[in-house]
Amino acid sequence: MLRQLTLTALAAAGFASLAAPAVAQDTVYVPLLTYRTGPFAGSGIHIANGMRDYLEMLNQRDGGIGGAKIIIEECETGYDTKKGVECYESTKGKNPVLYNPYSTGITLQLIPKAAVDKVPVLSMAYGLSASADGNNFPWVFNPPVTYWDGASVFIRHVLQAEGGNIKGKTIGLIHLDAPFGKEPIPVLEALAKEYGFNLKLYPVPAAQMQNQGSVWLSIRRDRVDWIYNQGWGAMNPTAVKEAVKNGFPINKLVGVWWAGGDDDARAGEAGAKGYKTLNFHNTGAQFPVMQDILKHVFDKNLSQAKREQVGENLYNRGVYNSMLIAEAVRTAQRLTGKKAVNGADVRRGLEALNITEARLKEIGMEGFAAPVKVTCADHNGHNKVFVSQWDGTKYVKASDWIEPLKNIVRPLIEQAAKEYVSKDAGWPKRTEACDAPA
Q: Quick one: pLDDT at residue 431?
């Protein structure tokens, strides 16, 4: 009997070894730091759904990326920095290819960890603007545009609307009183000196996001001409409602791209028609990529989103974010010849990222977004942005693509990057040289 059991065990082991190559599969592990709960969930849920659904679509349609299945794992942060760091620590041992903190506060905590753990941080159009400097932040990437670029595009839009002269105008920044909200302040201060406008700051504490009455009384008292909204989560619909309530010209309230949720505008009801937000991708579900998500994800009941949310601004933002992830992984595979790439490989992929018009068409995103290119020295690209406007039911493109004021923004970024890293003698700067950004 013992002999029979031994033979059976050996046979089973033999069959297992023969079967192993058939079931073994190259994988890439993509942790998603998301927040479906808490005061920022109203925005975070749509982002999380878009990110997950694009990656799931690649798994269902293509079997993953370049022959490697994508292992998707969400970790709930509640937009809390401490929880975000805990998510990082609990997942970094699983060979992640990169991290998406989805919070400027969490990003700031992960920046020094990235070089130690050899896992890049992708803070897509958020985080620390200075980290666009690849020489000083070799493991952090924030394409396609920084908050400083966005603020400069806002001022360019105001200049165009005001006939090229804004000297003496009062421009306000209503912002979340947190690292994210404070990001545009340095460049707005520089632009105020350049163009002669008066800058007023209106911080909104996280605990008062839905109680902005006193802030808007101050805006009325100061007779503000234009307002830039650097808000997120529950702050945004409240700002739109208060603008309507206080009779502020809604077409002169312009949000950063994170203040452009469909629910943000809906909160103002009919009075919100004309509200503006900056954007770097289009809305709508007519693009082939969205149709593939509907076919391969929604039709298989694999999404947590509602079908009608596909095409909304923040859902599409999540899709765009995961497109950058996938293209960085694909580039890393091409450079290394490996399917199961790791974080160091994907860092190389991010530094060689070059998503052309032709590539956008190949992946079903023709007309959805503009090309984006990242280099060794420039981890952002400072790409063009356009103004979206709420037409009462949806966001529509309301301007041409607008170049950031690179001649002002880039020197500020390089100076800020040097100051940031100089505070830490052991800062992990790049060891190899980069050419100057084009």
A: 73
Q: Using the CB atoms, write b or e for 293-324: b if 16+ within 10 Å.
A: bbebbbeeeebebeeebbbbbbbbbbbbbbbb
Structure tokens at 19: 């079967």
How far apart CA 49 and CA 72 sit, in angstroms, is 12
AA identity, residue 243: A
CA 73/CA 359 separation, integer angstroms? 27
**329 within 8 A of 341, measured Cβ to Cβ:** yes
CA angle 80, 228, 146 (to 5 degrees): 60
Sheet strands (E) in 14-113: 27-34, 69-76
Whole-model pTM: value is 0.91
**Amino acid in the structure at residue 424:** D
> pLDDT (tens digit, 9 = 90+) per residue, 46-70?
999 999 999 999 999 999 999 999 9
Query: Distance between CA 179 and CA 101 in Å, rounded?
Result: 14
Domains of the chain: 27-145+283-382 (3.40.50.2300), 148-279+388-406 (3.40.50.2300)
> What is the crossing angle of helices 41-62 and 288-296, to 10°?
80
Burial of 256 (0-12, 13-18, 19+ CB in 10 A): buried
Q: How many Cβ atoms from other residues are within 10 Å of residue 3's Cβ?
A: 7
Q: Which of the pair, 201 or 13, is modelled with greater confidence? A: 201
SS3 at position 363: coil
* Three-point CA angle 270, 313, 252, nearest 5°: 50
Give the pair of three-digit tokens for residue 370. Answer: 């503009």
The pLDDT score that the predictor gives to residue 424 is 78
Q: Chain centroid to CA 71: how far?
A: 20
Q: Given strand 386-390, what is the order of strands in its sheet?
A: 198-204, 170-176, 226-230, 253-255, 276-279, 386-390, 395-397
